[in-house]
Amino acid sequence: MNTLFRFWSHFLRDHFNRGMYTEFQTLAREDATSGYRYGLECLFRFYSYGLEAKFRPDLFTDFQTHTVADTAAGELYGLEKFWAYLHYRKDKNRRPEVDALVCAELRDALGKFKCVDDFRKARGGGAATGRRQDGPANHPGPASWKAASSAEFPPLKG
């Protein structure tokens, strides 16, 4: 799934497809409720970089909705990506228009953060991305799976 999430986060920026986007959102949220945040993090990156390339009001609204939910769940990753989008985007001429669309709840939450390091400090000095160790290496799969030892594979004849 990680490969698919990563693909969607890049592909949809230039080739937006509503059905694919809906599936991306749905699966990312489902995985996040099970403790696997990679899909949701890819979704936040899609919003941050995709909206910078081409602003879409409907996606901006979704970005806010997901960010509010992520923040309410005690996470900072979405809020950090939202802050970065607002702070670093290149379309400075649209800044007042876009800034006016930010909901009051996010405006209040963002008021506590003046720079990227503020997010790190809020996480207690953890990694700058706020990522948990929930990747595939820490979820090896069913207990019936086991690592193959070299004794199980005879040497190749050749």
TrEMBL record:
<dbReference type="InterPro" id="IPR006607">
    <property type="entry name" value="DM15"/>
</dbReference>
<dbReference type="Pfam" id="PF21071">
    <property type="entry name" value="LARP1_HEAT"/>
</dbReference>
<feature type="region of interest" description="Disordered">
    <location>
        <begin position="124"/>
        <end position="158"/>
    </location>
</feature>
<protein>
    <submittedName>
        <fullName>Uncharacterized protein</fullName>
    </submittedName>
</protein>
<dbReference type="GO" id="GO:0000339">
    <property type="term" value="F:RNA cap binding"/>
</dbReference>
<dbReference type="GO" id="GO:0048255">
    <property type="term" value="P:mRNA stabilization"/>
</dbReference>
